[in-house]
Amino acid sequence: MKIAIVGTGYVGLVTGTCFAEMGIDVTCIDIDSKKIEKLRQGIIPIYEPGLEELVRKNIARGRLVFETELAAVVREVEVVFSAVGTPPGDDGAADLRQVLEVARTIGRSIDRYVLVVTKSTVPVGTAGKVCAAIGRELSVRGLDVDFDVASNPEFLKEGSAVDDFMRPDRIVVGVDSDRARTIMERLYRPFTLNGHPVLFMDVASAEMAKYAANAMLAIRISFMNEVAGLCEIVGADVNQVRRAIGADPRIGSKFLYAGCGYGGSCFPKDVKALYNTAREKGFRMRVVEATEETNEQQKKILFEKFQAHFDGDIAGRTVALWGLSFKPETDDMREAPSLAIITELLAAECKVRVYDPILTVERAPCPVEGMECCSDKYEAAEGADALLLVTEWKEFRMPDWARLREAMKQPVVIDGRNIYDGNALREDGFSYCGIGVK
Q1: 325: left (phi over 0), alpha (psi -120 to 50) or beta
Q2: What's the CA gap between 30 and 22, in Å, rounded?
């Protein structure tokens, strides 16, 4: 089977590479010629564990190729995956311009049946718009060519995307024809041999499933952050509360960790897009809207705790910040809590020294103007009045506390992910503050 993947961003590159690993001939397409040239050399534009090795292996074996022109490829493949970006517009709604341009290009190019699969996260009803765009272009050409449009949303977690694709907990496929279903069954058969389920449904339900899943996870995070806030007021410990409610099989323990807010390319964008879709239909999703409001406020919690510790006297103080990416094992800073924290610190005339295992290694250019990037975590802590733990990278879990206390001007630790034992740190002479813990 030969397939094409349009878009070599996070979703497209992982999807194309993993399909190639299963023996499928894959052509990945992107209009960015410089990116394509680097990909042909096995140089990938993102940090994702295990991905670069798979890209290079499948290039060498001839199963993975990279091109810039969809029109030249579409006649040679059976399936075209659209994995282009759908960034939020000014109003928060998903921007479908790239999705529809892919559809128009397909309509201008096909001369035989092709299955068009939307992999990007798109609002309900997008498949209909894609179908109409292809149909209009065929009409202009005076052709009557069969095609189908399916939905196959991704459920990849940055930092473990390759494993998620190879061993998915579920594969969601929305189809409206038996022919499309048969093709998708063939395509995903290698992944179902180990019992991973393919959930077939109508296209609209598949489109909704991705948004609903991300919104539910975001709701759990924001809920626990609000619980943590109340815990601090009443003297409870959010970690003990989490253990108690997570033991309930109706709830489970995942995504119940309090912290300094979520970020990334999915949750913030998808939450906004979901409630905007509802508003367009005259419906309010109040819980989803409140989830975003809570998260935006939570991103400021570490700054507020730092400010409170010094009774507002923070101008000119030096702050060490560990972690820039929105989560470990990725270089993605989109909507990262670190951005909100750094912005507040710089506005308050603080000196900000940061270290991230990927984003500041070897003194790479600083992602935010005005802060100082350091080569390791101890350098960042030199002369600091406080240390803020923002991203829970593994190398931050067990630092040399004696060395850290010696390096810091004041031994203040503000733990944005509750990964440290506050009582033990206090016994070692540190002032410790977590999220919703004593």
Answers
A1: beta
A2: 22
Q: Which of 266, 350, 373, 374 is catalytic?
A: 266
| Contact of 319 with 341, CB cutoff 8 Å | no
In the sheet where 2-6 sits, what is the strand order? 64-67, 25-29, 2-6, 79-82, 114-118, 147-151, 171-174, 198-201
Question: Is 266 marked active-site?
Answer: yes
Inter-helix orientation angle 337-347/301-309, to 10°: 40
Please give the full DSSP string across 280-316, using - where no structure is assigned: HTT---HHHHHHHHHHHHHTTHHHHHHHHHTTT--TT
- How many other CB atoms sit within 10 Å of the CB of residue 429? 10
Per-residue pLDDT of the chain (438 residues; tens, 9 = 90+): 999 999 999 999 999 999 999 999 999 999 999 999 999 999 999 889 999 999 999 999 999 999 999 998 999 999 999 999 988 887 778 899 999 999 999 999 999 999 999 999 899 999 999 999 999 999 999 999 999 999 999 999 989 999 999 999 899 999 999 999 999 999 999 888 877 789 999 999 999 999 999 999 999 999 999 999 999 999 999 999 999 999 999 999 999 999 999 999 889 999 999 999 999 999 999 999 999 999 999 999 999 999 999 999 999 999 999 999 999 999 999 999 999 999 999 999 999 999 999 988 654 556 678 899 999 999 999 999 999 999 999 999 999 999 999 999 999 999 999 999 999 999 999 999 999 998
Tracing tokens 């069954």 back to the chain, one arrives at 185
Identify which of 149, 70, 150, 82 has the alpha carbon closest to the alpha carbon of residue 110: 70
Sheet holding 372-373, edge to edge: 372-373, 351-355, 318-322, 386-389, 412-415, 431-433
Q: Helix and strand tally (H, E) in the chain?
A: 16, 14
Task: Name residues whose C-beta falls within 8 Å of residue 215's C-beta, 6 or more positions apart in sequence.
Answer: 270, 271, 274, 288, 291
Render 339-355 in DSSP notation, one character per residue.
HHHHHHHHHTT-EEEEE
Quick check: helix, strand or coil at residue 380? helix
**Structural domains in the chain?**
2-201 (3.40.50.720), 210-297 (1.10.1040.10), 299-433 (3.40.50.720)
Q: Compute the distance between CA of residue 90 and CA of residue 137 in angstroms, rounded to an integer.
A: 29
5 close to 12: Cβ distance less than 8 angstroms: yes
